[in-house]
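*** Fold description ***
***
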Amino acid sequence: MTTTRAAFDIDGRRLSYLDFGGAGRALLALHGHMSDAASFAGLARRLTPGWRLIGLDQRGHGHSDRAGDYTRAGYLSDILALLDHLGLDRVALLGHSVGSINAYQLAARHPERVEAFIDIDGAVSLGLDGPNPLNFVLSLPYQAPTREELVDAMGPLADHFATMVRECADGTWSLPFHPRDMVDSEDHVRGEHWPDWESSTCPALLIRATRGRIPREHADAMIERRPRTRMVELDTDHFVYTTDPDGFATAVNEFLTDL
């Protein structure tokens, strides 16, 4: 398969996406906070034949422009715009973390566009107590004249974020997300999303990481309260596609094959 990057404009913003190639039905992949479409390159190499994997750099992430807001409705409007841009009437969705919330909310609010969805370690009740878990990124620098200056300013967080920095068109260096945007986006995620989870009826797969962010009892409730939903558990942390790429691909492929 040949991966191509393309972009289109919506409301004065540029949205970028990766088409990983493949022939057949479309599988649209939605990454989590502080990530981008390239997260799913490993899945693209392992994907069962008969599917075309497309990954969106969601608003404010990767090669897509920052947005004026990071509301739930804003994320969903971007996804619909991409489907219209590509001429795709109906797709299967795969989402990780905030991307999984976007997937099951799109299935609930626009069921005519969603054939099925895969939720990768994305809960339904989020952040009901305590501070925003992404507040720590506010200490990160966003941009600097050189790569070295940007990485040095990260301090101890450089161990995780240094590999993400990129050179901008003007020669400066930046992160592929703005820290303030990530905190704002997480604020809009926090809350109860049970009505969205329960109201769609298409086939769904929940991939739960045993060392991830969904307690077992919460996952059991998700399966019990939504019809046509199955669960696969993998002994990984939250970043399932990185820590167990083969197990992740197997779970995805078996679900897609059953469709």
Observations:
- The CA atoms of residues 132 and 186 lie 7 Å apart.
- The chain has one domain: 4-125+191-258.
- The mean pLDDT is 96.
- The domain at 4-125+191-258 is CATH 3.40.50.1820 (Rossmann fold).
